[in-house]
Design brief:
Number of helices: 11
Distance between the termini: 81 Å
Largest sheet: 6 strands, mixed
Order of helices and strands: HHHEEHEHEHEEEHEHEHEHEEHE
Helix content: 40-55%
């Protein structure tokens, strides 16, 4: 036995439209049906209830008393169903996480790992804006930011993901080149040094700072190349075009896979670290919290020792 004794929904829709327009023809136009189809649905509805719902006048319709009662109830119920359906669709569409970060972090660290998050939350649409521009999260509609900044410049409620060290990296084939040894920092004079010219942390990509820490201020490389994006710089290093200054958290997997190698053991500690910052709106969204927790867990794994060896650190 059915729990509710209800007529089919299409009959109720036809009745609601006919009652609102007081016209089977206008109801048919609205519902993309023929006038006779609407008439048949109304007749079936009247048969279901066993009473007339309309008084059919010459070129006019009028609701009976029973029709008026049913019209009020049907309009209210269909309106509620429509509103709930819209809300459910909005909630489905609203499961987005909008993240702003630097192009280097996005291309080298975040995007390669992103499939692991989407595998567990396929219902969440992650949108990444990779730019050096420092945006206002609350004003500009971002849920999260992953920022590369010094501790004194970061927001109070920012979550530290991991610190940073800078170290020379290159392709393994450069390391194996017998004509140009690369065994000590002094050997950099035989190679092309590649520079990052823009973005946060570009100062730490300045070879003179690293060379000064190695007490090699006067070293002259064979040549230099300049790049505006960190991932471009690293891709050039993978291609064997020269030696780059890399950031260990971003390059850990590449060093493990030996797409890149670190020819020297000493690194320079960066005054900057990677921080996770949430907007006020993002803090109230469960999907944003899930993504933030996933990023933090990935960062903890990525910063664990052992992937690229323990390196001595020298401060500039």
């Amino acid at each position: 036995m059915r729990h509710y004794d209800l007529p089919p929904l299409d009959q109720l829709e036809a009745f609601e439209a006919s009652a609102r327009h007081l016209s089977f023809t206008k109801a048919a136009d609205e519902l993309a049906l023929t006038q006779s189809a609407v008439s048949r649905q109304i007749a079936a509805l009247e048969e279901h209830y066993g009473l007339p719902l309309f008084r059919r006048l010459h070129r006019a319709l009028r609701l009976t008393d029973e029709g008026q009662t049913l019209s009020r109830a049907v309009s209210e119920v269909l309106g509620q169903l429509h509103a709930v359906g819209d809300q459910l669709k909005r909630e489905r569409r609203a499961k987005t996480v909008v993240v702003t970060t630097t192009p280097g972090f996005a291309g080298l660290w975040l995007i390669p790992r992103l499939a692991a998050f989407t595998a567990t939350r396929p219902d969440v649409d992650v949108r990444i804006s990779a730019d050096y521009k420092l945006v206002n999260l609350n004003r500009d509609g971002f849920d999260l930011a992953i920022r590369y900044q010094s501790q004194d410049a970061i927001a109070d409620r920012a979550e530290l993901l991991f610190g940073d060290v800078v170290l020379p990296v290159c392709s393994p084939k450069l390391l194996r080149d017998p004509a140009r040894p690369l065994k000590t920092p002094e050997d950099l004079r035989h190679h092309v040094l590649m520079y990052l010219d823009s973005g946060p942390g570009a100062d730490m990509q300045d070879w003179p700072i690293w060379l000064r820490a190695m007490k090699l201020e006067g070293l002259k490389p064979a040549s230099v190349l300049h790049f505006s994006q960190f991932d471009q710089l690293i891709n050039a290093a993978i291609g064997g075009q020269g030696v780059a200054l890399g950031r260990s958290p971003l390059l850990k997997q590449m060093l493990r896979d030996r797409r890149l190698v670190a020819p020297f053991k000493k690194t320079v500690a960066s005054p900057r670290s990677y921080y996770l910052v949430q907007s006020a709106a993002g803090a109230r969204k469960p999907e944003v919290q899930d993504f933030a927790g996933w990023v933090a867990a990935e960062a903890l794994t990525a910063s664990a020792p052992g992937s690229s060896g323990s390196a001595d650190r020298a401060r500039a």
